[in-house]
Amino acid sequence: MTHLIIPAEWSPHKAIWTCWPSAADLWQEDLASARAEVAAMICALAAPTPAGKVGDVMHVLAHGEEAVASARASLPSQVRVHPCGFGDIWLRDTGPIFAKREGRAVALRFAFNGWGGKYDLSFDDSVGDRVAEAAATPIQRADFILEGGAVDHDGDGTILTTRQCLLNPNRNPGWNEAVAESHLQTALGAKKVLWLGDGLANDHTDGHVDNIARFIGPGRVMCMAPFGEDDPNHEVLNQIAADLRSMTDAAGRALEVVQIPSPGLVTDEDGEAVPASHMNFIIGNASVVMPHYGTASADAALRGLAAAFPMHRVVGIQSTAILTGGGSFHCITQQEPA
Length: 338
Fold this sequence. Notes:
alpha/beta, L-arginine/glycine Amidinotransferase, Chain A, 4-stranded mixed sheet, single chain
């Protein structure tokens, strides 16, 4: 079997791919605000740092003539806008996972079933092929269902995931940990899989790991501490931290666990808790962009993230409109390794 590796997100990028909010019927009154938040993220990732670190080459998919025109009018001229069909902007899940096989780029493609049959949108099963083609990267297919936000990678073969998502019968019926690990070893080059339990309350992805815990360096992982007595994820977040502290990675290192505060209780217009998370940051070449929701925890979370990434500019950007669709900045991006 040829050697396959998913480079860590902090490894140098050739580009970052993302999507422009395009479907007015999906976004409705939040369309303009979502576009403004996505534009702010794109500009932050593309910008160089004062120290001379070069920002990311940004590729943006836009669906339909109006969306293409809007993206081109809203974004810097160096951003590359691609007319392309997609159901919605969650490219982390519908796009390819870019990997390296024997040092050469490959786009890993998996089956997609709308997060366990919740959302059936045109083009979501094909946009990953379009991205791979635009990136001129050969495709390697796997015959099981997997979303990119369900797995996090340390670049050394350790994969972090959740039982709530990967073992959910609405994805791959009959899977247990052993079966899942075998598939992840073959398709993603996993040397060791670290299992967490449940994700955030009311997360329609069924517990994607990129909302709760992320690798931030070799042997280092970040997760959230509960914020406020009314944090709806109080028990879940404490359990995640405790589980991570008991784990070792593929290299045998005990994980160093770094915590930043969660956003705490964030509600929708009906008063229901929504899966707001500071963990849904995207690590660029020069910048780390963290979502915030106007909560009191945002400044402390930014300071913690800045301490973890001293060589990056760490930027907090409002993500309230994007969250109405269920995710944030990591959910809408996919890095292409250099």
